[in-house]
Design a protein that fits this description.
Length: 562
């Protein structure tokens, strides 16, 4: 049990009269100062569909905090939406926002001597930033996710989402659909607020927050508009007060073992490759070296059964996943492979959570398989190495057609996402080609943009199973087709990707976890000697600082002063 609340330094000494007065000026009273002060880090914004419901959820969190005997104090956190930023310079700010979020929460919590935190988010970089803040601050913390949106209009044989529009645009250009079809899809692909319906980065990281023990059991996949989401919010508010009073901190929740649990679950659900970046960054916050974490990714990536396929890998959406038991059901199937002694914010260990969870839904075995009868083994997230990626790169076999598990083609090289997209739309990319997109890594972009549009356009033009994309950028969890990202060292650091030329032959070999540039070693070295670094794209502002401090994707894209 806690001996003294952190906030009491502000409220029990005469030399700190001004904080009491400041709180009283906002309506708080003397009774509030005797209770744990719980910060609600709310990333509500009207610019992000996954966060549009967080203002209401914050009110339910406050109910829980007051019911649990705490005092609530809400503050704002920034959030960006990849749907809005993809395909233009706004995407440069997406990954860098993760560090701004972590820094911002750290600044408010430390400046205000908060006793605990409930952090509200949903989308791609917000949840990882909150995880990093929890680890860094090491005060009792719970993450409450806003929940996925409901399914969109059926399109091309499956439920639609926002990413379907880019595929549809390619189909329109190829003469496969009409403008009216596209307009109808625009109106109906996002019927409610919430994070996108597929197992993209947003829902992947929400699910992994639950696996890590940072979110309450069963809370990750509850759809945004369900009443159960409000009950989860209130329960989170009550739970955080209990954690504060018991002094249960993130250092007993976020551990080497819980991160390994998250990697196992990531592979089991076929989650986003972006999770590699974010779990590396989280591990860095607890001083675990990137090499050790990549070793876990390599080991579990080869041995973990794929027991769930969620859109875009199947027709099933996150709403279906929730109704099939969600993360608790997945953990139950995997329990023999997990570190079950890990503590969670429920106040119980993972093993105790698995044993006591009510399991209200019967699992659909076409969506969530058993561990002994999976969709496959070693098909989740794959770490590749080779002469084109000496420090590793990342792919996702479960998103790649069986015919492309080993793919060899000739390179068509572009120095930006925009150049690649223009070439695809102009139909310069043909079957059998490998689209190489470079200078999109953490330093080169700067910000490591998603090559989402290129993959979707290739799909729309009917090239999804006959081409590949290789890049030092990253991918959305919604991408399918043959792709390899996170190539390290990146082109801007003088990695081999920088010297690839049109017509060079490249092989992607997923079974053997290899990426090979078929150019003699001596020629690679000769080309590298002639290479000159590109000029910085930004010379002031956050992106200028980011480009100077950002580390390789193989280190999680973390920021570090050399």
């Amino acid at each position: 049990m806690i001996e003294m609340l952190k906030s009491q330094r502000l409220f029990t000494h005469d030399e700190y009269l001004s904080p009491r007065a400041a709180f009283k000026s906002m309506g708080y009273g003397d009774a509030d100062f005797k209770k744990p002060i719980i910060g609600i880090a709310n990333s509500f914004t009207e610019l992000v569909p996954g966060h549009a419901n967080l203002r209401e959820l914050a009110d339910w969190v406050k109910r829980g905090i007051y019911a649990g005997g705490g005092t609530a104090a809400e503050f704002g956190v920034l959030a960006t939406c990849d749907c809005l930023s993809n395909g233009h310079k706004g995407q440069y700010f997406s990954l860098p926002s993760r560090d701004i979020i972590a820094d911002g929460i750290e600044a408010v919590a430390e400046a205000s001597l908060l006793d605990g935190l409930v952090m509200l988010g949903s989308c791609d970089k917000i949840i990882p930033g909150m995880m990093m803040a929890a680890a860094r601050l090491n005060i009792p913390s719970i993450i409450l996710c806003g929940g996925p949106m409901l399914s969109g209009l059926p399109f091309d044989g499956r439920c639609s989402d926002f990413t379907s529009l880019t595929e549809a645009f390619g189909m329109l250009k190829a003469g496969k659909i009409t403008r009216d079809d596209l307009n109808l899809l625009e109106d109906q692909c996002g019927p409610t607020c919430g994070s996108c319906q597929m197992i993209g980065t947003a829902n992947t990281m929400c699910c992994l927050s639950e696996v890590l023990g940072l979110s309450l059991p069963g809370s990750a996949a509850i759809p945004a508009v369900y009443a159960e989401r409000k009950r989860a919010a209130q329960a989170s508010g009550e739970a955080i007060v209990s954690l504060v009073l018991r002094d249960v901190r993130p250092d007993v929740v976020i551990t080497k073992q819980s991160i390994q649990n998250a990697i196992i679950a990531l592979n089991a659900i076929g989650g986003s490759t972006n999770a590699v970046l974010h779990l590396l960054a989280l591990a860095n916050e607890i001083d675990v070296q990137a090499g050790e974490v990549l070793g876990w990714f390599e080991d579990y990536g080869k041995t973990t059964p794929l027991i769930s396929k969620i859109f875009p890998a199947s027709k099933y959406t996150m709403e279906d996943f929730y109704r099939s038991g969600g993360i608790p059901q997945v953990l139950k199937e995997l329990e023999d492979s997990l570190f079950k002694d890990c503590m969670t914010v429920s106040g119980k260990t993972m093993g105790e959570n698995i044993e006591s969870y009510p399991y209200s839904f019967k699992p659909d075995r076409e969506l969530i398989k058993t561990a002994d009868r999976p969709f496959g083994v070693g098909t989740g997230v794959a770490i590749l190495r080779g002469n084109l990626a000496p420090d590793t790169c990342v792919s996702k076999p479960s998103a790649i057609h069986p015919s492309q598990q080993v793919f060899t083609g000739k390179a068509l090289v572009f120095d930006s996402e925009e150049e690649a997209n223009e070439a695809i739309i102009a139909e310069r990319v043909k079957a059998g080609g490998v689209v190489v997109i470079r200078y999109e890594g953490p330093k080169g972009a700067p910000g490591m943009r998603e090559m989402f549009s290129a993959m979707k356009l290739l799909y729309g033009f009917g090239l999804g199973t006959s081409t590949a994309v290789v890049t030092d950028g990253r991918f959305s969890g919604t991408n399918n087709g043959c792709f390899v990202g996170h190539i390290s060292p990146e082109a801007a650091e003088g990695g081999p990707l920088a010297i690839v030329q049109d017509g060079d032959e490249i092989t992607i070999d997923l079974p053997n976890r290899a990426l090979t540039l078929h150019v003699p070693d001596q020629e690679i070295q000769d080309r590298l000697k002639k290479w000159t670094p590109p000029m910085p794209k930004y010379t002031k502002g956050h992106l200028s600082r980011y480009a100077k401090m950002a580390q390789s994707a193989s280190k999680g894209g973390i920021l570090k002063l050399d």
